[in-house]
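To assess whether the prediction recovers the assembly geometry, we first specified each molecular entity separately, as shown.
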Amino acid sequence: MSFIPGQPVTAVVLHFQLSCALQQRIEICKLRQGEHLILGFSIGGGIDQDPGQNPFSEDKSDKGIYVTRVTPGGPAEVAGLMMGDKVMQVNGWDMTMVTHDQARKRLTKKNEDIVRLLVTRKSLEQAVRHSMM
Amino acid sequence: MFCRNQTTRATIARGSALEMEIRRGKFRRSVFLDTLQDSNIQKKIDHEIRMRDGACKLLAACSQRDQALEASKSLLTCNIRIMAYMSELQRMKEAQVMQRVALRSSDAGPTDDRLPCKGKVAISDLRIPLMWKDTEYFKNKGELHRCAVFCLLQVGAEIHDTDMVIVDRTLTDICFDNTIVFSEASPGFELRVEMYSCCSEEDYSTGSTSRKLASKLSSSLGRSAGKKLRVAMDPGACSPISNGGGATLLLPLPTVVGPKYHLLAHTTLSLSHVQDSFRTHDLSISGNEECSHWVPLYGNVCCRLAAQPHCMTQQMMSGCLKVKQFGGDPQSWTNVYGVLKGTNLFCYHRQEDVEANIEPAFTISINKKTRIRASEKDRHNKAQSICISNHYGGEEVTHTLSADSREDTHRWMEAFWQQFYDMSQWKQCCDDLMKIELPSPRKPTLVTSKQGSLYHEMVIDTSDDISTVTDILARRMEELELRSQLGTSPPWMSLFEESPGCPRTHNRLPHSPLRCPRPGLLSSEASLTSDSDSPCSTSPCSRYSGWAEPLSLSSPSSHFRPRTLSLDAKLSTLRGRGYGGVLQCSCQPPSSSSLAPIPAQCVPQATLSCSSSTSSNSSSEGSHSPELSDGTPFSRPSSARQSLRNLRAKLDPRNWLQSQV
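The predicted structure of the complete assembly is given in tokenized form:
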């Protein structure tokens, strides 16, 4: 959105509303592929991982679990999960203080067909920022 | 292990007659010492002295570090036990003397002090959390500093030791699996937990000899390792009792050279810490980071401390009784056989039922809230009767007991009083019976598996063959490839193809020095620091055989190690096999014509791969550096190696792990 002098800048208002990270609830129905139940995304991070190498986190000491890839057409993409989301909870279990393996296990429980994720995302803020450039 | 502020204990004065007797190991059968208890203790002391001699001999004779650590641990334990027994002996003698004096001076009747019953105290599942620095844990710089740690647990004169555990920075908690039971502890017991540690040299693992050989071949004694070795070899031979107890040494201790344990932390637990679940207690830490035996303790110890007083587990009193419910008609007396155990008075129909495990007729609970009263002579009965009142759910129920004779009644009352006293002394242990699991006798595992770290290599246990050694070396070199994402290949690399100026002394060496043949590095070492002098120090001279590997890591010097002929040849064939046909066997100098064009191509490849690897983990899964996967002219390594590489990448914490779900 370019700044045209004389015109009200509505983008600023939008920016204020969305300056905090959004929390999204995402419900993913696992897809059965053979004997595996897949969700269709990849995660990175964990309290046992080096947080400095996380390309998605703003704060480089954040040891949370981030979505690093979303398989196109997979259940996660269909449910609205996006790359760069930080996973806060999975089916009520906290994911902000878990090891990488614990996180993976909580997502891949065989007896659960649906996982409900609570994620935070700053993509809208970034989108607005981009649009203002 | 002494508490110096215990006034009841006194050390034996040097040169005194008693000390001389002890030195000679003989005891005059004097009136002071002629009791059963004393001889028991004496036997124990003798036993420990023999054990100590054995441990000294073992320590002097053993060559492996692990054996030395174990022997030193037994030595320390024996010494401490001897001191504890000696002090116990002293205490008993003093008590006897006091008793004699008291008897002589006054004819006071037997003291009416009630003694609480003893009990079993068990401590199990000791866990001591550690607090490594964040950077240490992730970056894994430097050699793996290891310590050997064990605990001593003492109640009175009874000292038990736990197994020894090797601690390094991959461990987050020190766990001792032993369950230790002290059978005769009074409620005022003090369980002293002491943690001893000793610095252990790095990497003296009990692995197979081929591993040892591989590590020996490929690692040299660096500056820091050498320093440690020198310190360890230092014959600063003070006796292994180094806990600062400093008691006058009664017996001439042989000076031992070997690993020395130092007291690292201690704490004292007592009845108030007893609970039927895990609890965390504070540790008092002696020592600081400067000590060689330092282990970064978080400051707590978690354990389960349980107690079973004898009043809960044993029959305290039993006999025939007549019971009737209060308020019932005088004729409704029931004859029972009563057994007082724990918080209950079990009333069986017959005495035989007790052994037969038949359910009792009824049970009267005897707990803290019970009120027991001996009533005066009943109108109908000559003997006294005992009334027991309990509150069962709001209402008060009273039972009346009557024994056969006056003495029996008196004995029962005495038993009840004792039971109440015990319950008041043992407090929370008498609420419910705490379970104590006796450790099942099992064979002590001699070879402790490496305290599991994901970041260590898999053990390769094949026969001691040169091929296993070369395999290990080859794998380690691969690993180095994996980690070479940090370095960039300097542009002057291309200049060093086949440079004739370089000394060809090591013309047998097949590969590019960039590969840095230091496979001695376990995955825990990131930097190639070394103090060995290499013939070609900085320049990657010798044959740049077109191997487009970026310079591994940050080490400025690359190293050669003169290798044996056979190993060398073997390695070269291995590599030739695995990495495509371009690299020829080292035995033949590659014709410059065939190789010359390739380096030129490769250099841009090298820089490309480096730049992509520094922008980490953009789209790749598994996050291993995409060195060889971007269309290099070389054939790709075999799939087995690729999967091994993947596994390594997964386990290496310095990659930022990604998992597909």
